[in-house]
Write a structure and sequence with these properties.
The chain is α/β, with parallel strands linked by helices. It contains eleven helices and twelve strands. It is globular, with a radius of gyration of 19 Å.
Length: 304
């Protein structure tokens, strides 16, 4: 897929109806020859846009974005080559919760591609599913469920850990600034809940290990306490892993005790059903069995 096609598809399938600013910017980049000549192949829109925002550049005005990007390209390119889209969206816990609450309690959570570990606290956040509310305090994570009953209670978590090639430190302002830059600019509610979630995590930081999702995962899983149900999970991670490694990952996680909860690209699951429409969805699957289609930030969940 060409750079132009990547940005056009991002605008049409991911940003449309979610972020007018990024929809407009993605469409602009996809047709601007000066930007297309600069952007390296396979550079994700979220990565480029996040780096520009991290460096203080504008994203609301496409022309100003182009001028800033061309003028500051050496600095932008350097950041792109050393960073990854580690969006740590706690809102995704809202679509994980119905599954987590249904498993034998208590739980030992192990997140693959954990970033700063904000999705390791589903028991500490509050939720709103239509008229049903769980928990008290902030952040309140909202999601629309279709064909799925909201959980009656939050899960009990007795151990939480994560593995990442480049784990972020929830107590480091520089790492939090990168997470903030990755939030889509017209979604102020996501910025608020990032701040609220980082306060919760910083008060009780998770165990985060730098390592590979295949070779280093079993050793970390072995640290989970006996008597707790191990749940290895990931959200929007495997698209950054070469497809040639997916079979090894599936085999590794299936050999572990407990459960595998994937909220990721549909292609990860063999013989996955087709998405319901032209939007971009994650496929939520438990132990390799599809359960629901979810939107990227946890805002909606529809049973398969």
């Amino acid at each position: 897929m060409s750079v132009a096609e990547i940005y056009a598809e991002f605008a049409a399938a991911e940003a449309r109806g979610v972020s007018p600013i990024y929809e407009r910017l993605g469409e602009f980049v996809s047709t601007d020859p000066d930007l297309l000549a600069l952007i390296p192949d396979q550079t994700q829109p979220q990565l480029l846009f996040g780096v520009v925002r991290l460096l203080g550049g504008p994203v609301g005005d496409p022309v100003a974005f182009r001028d800033f990007t061309i003028e500051r390209w050496p600095a932008i390119e350097a950041e792109i080559r050393q960073r990854a889209t580690q969006t740590n969206e706690p809102g995704r816990c809202a679509v994980l919760l119905p599954i987590l609450a249904s498993l034998p309690q208590p739980l030992a959570l192990l997140e693959v591609g954990a970033s700063a570990g904000l999705c390791l606290y589903p028991d500490r956040y509050s939720y709103r599913y239509g008229l049903r509310t769980l928990g008290e305090g902030s952040p309140v994570l909202e999601s629309t469920l279709t064909g799925i009953e909201p959980p009656a209670a939050r899960p009990e978590v007795v151990w939480r850990a994560g593995i990442d090639l480049n784990p972020l430190d929830v107590t480091d302002p520089r790492d939090i600034a990168w997470l903030d830059a990755l939030i889509w600019p017209d979604q102020l509610h996501r910025r608020d809940r990032l701040r609220q979630a980082t306060e919760i995590a910083a008060a009780d930081p998770p165990l985060l290990v730098r390592g590979d999702l295949v070779t280093d995962l079993p050793a970390l899983a072995a640290q989970a306490p006996a008597g707790a149900t191990l749940v290895v999970f990931h959200t929007s991670v495997l698209y950054q892993v070469p497809p040639s490694r997916w079979p090894s990952f599936r085999a590794t996680v299936r050999d572990l005790p407990g459960h595998w909860l994937a909220n990721d690209i549909p292609d990860l699951i063999p013989d996955a059903p087709h998405p319901p429409d032209g939007n971009t969805y994650n496929l939520l699957a438990l132990d390799g069995v599809p359960v629901a289609w979810t939107r990227s930030h946890g805002q909606a969940m529809t049973r398969v």
